[in-house]
Write a structure and sequence with these properties.
By secondary structure, the protein is an all-alpha fold. Helices cover about 80% and strands about 0% of the residues. The protein is globular, with a radius of gyration of 27 Å.
């Protein structure tokens, strides 16, 4: 009996190992189409783009040219228009982060408590994020229109302004309104990130602190904020990368005007308006590298805070 059981056990083990190997082989075969799809649509264009950025610029993509190394990268960084667009992008990033973090945290705290109609409020909140940025830009352009825009109409009826204003012609107002449109689209995602972080905090922590006499404000500053550091890092990453790559809102609202041009708008101008494919691609890689560095920085900050 002992020998028969041992034999059955060995046979069962052989079949189990064989089944596991077949399952692993099947898994690899099923992943191969996704890998090939990614390689064709992502990796190959990236390799081709990097090759373009390190060769001498020509008026046509794919035309043979001389290898110049990182000369194109140095050239774009020395251009005043690139510097100005980078500074303008920093303005967008700074203003957007402040608004998204403050408003997102406030909305998350309000939505954290259950109330009647909470589901409807969440559905309405997600709507701006679900809309394509181009659609949002077109809608807001009608609001800021100097001739028939809703903003001028309301302000004139309230007696705040005497005549219609061309808001996007002013550097300050144009930057502010474009930032608001951008925040309007990203704020729902930031709010959901903070809301998920609030829901992960155990209620027992608040109950224990209340027994010790902690007021709601003390609980917020000494319990909620410290425990929301991982969510804050995620929100900052999302907000920063989105603001660095702002394009659609600017293009729809104000075109390629110099007073609102972002770094990604400068990539568009170099590549498709001026046909400087090598320099435009080099600048695009610099923007991508900056976004990656920002994401890595926040990831390291998150790890440092949670370890």
């Amino acid at each position: 009996m002992t020998g028969a059981r041992l034999l059955r056990s060995r046979v069962k083990g052989v079949f189990t190992v064989g089944a596991a190997r077949e399952e692993a082989r099947l898994g690899r075969l099923m992943v191969l189409p996704a890998i090939a799809f990614t390689a064709v649509l992502v990796l190959y264009p990236m390799v081709l783009g990097f090759s373009t950025s390190v060769h001498e610029g020509t008026g046509t993509i794919g035309t043979p040219s001389d290898f110049v190394g990182f000369e194109n990268y140095g050239d774009v960084l020395a251009q005043q228009s690139v510097v100005d667009s980078a500074v303008q992008t920093l303005r967008y990033v700074g203003a957007a982060l402040v608004l998204e973090v403050v408003l997102g945290l406030a909305l998350a705290v309000l939505l954290h408590r259950a109330f009647r109609g909470r589901g409807l409020v969440l559905a309405v909140l997600i709507l701006p994020w679900a809309l394509p940025s181009v659609v949002s830009g077109v809608m807001w352009r009608r609001i800021f229109d100097p001739d028939s825009g809703l903003l001028n109409s309301v302000l004139q009826h309230l007696g705040i302004i005497d005549s219609a204003q061309v808001w996007l012609a002013s550097d300050l107002w144009a930057t502010l309104f474009i930032t608001l449109v951008h925040v309007w689209g990203v704020l729902p995602l930031v709010t959901l990130v903070f809301l998920a972080g609030l829901q992960s905090i155990p209620d027992e922590v608040y109950s224990a602190s209340a027994v010790d006499g902690a007021t709601p404000w003390r609980q917020f500053f000494h319990i909620t904020l410290p425990l929301l550091r991982p969510s804050l890092a995620v929100a900052l990453t999302v907000g920063t990368v989105a603001a660095i790559n702002i394009f659609d809102e600017i293009y729809v609202l104000n075109g390629t005007a110099l007073n609102t041009r972002s770094i990604l708008m400068e990539v568009y101008n170099l590549t498709f308006v001026n046909s400087q494919f090598a320099e435009g691609t080099a600048l695009a890689f610099l923007v991508a590298a900056t976004s990656i560095l920002v994401a890595v920085f926040y990831a390291l900050l998150l790890r440092r805070r949670t370890v």
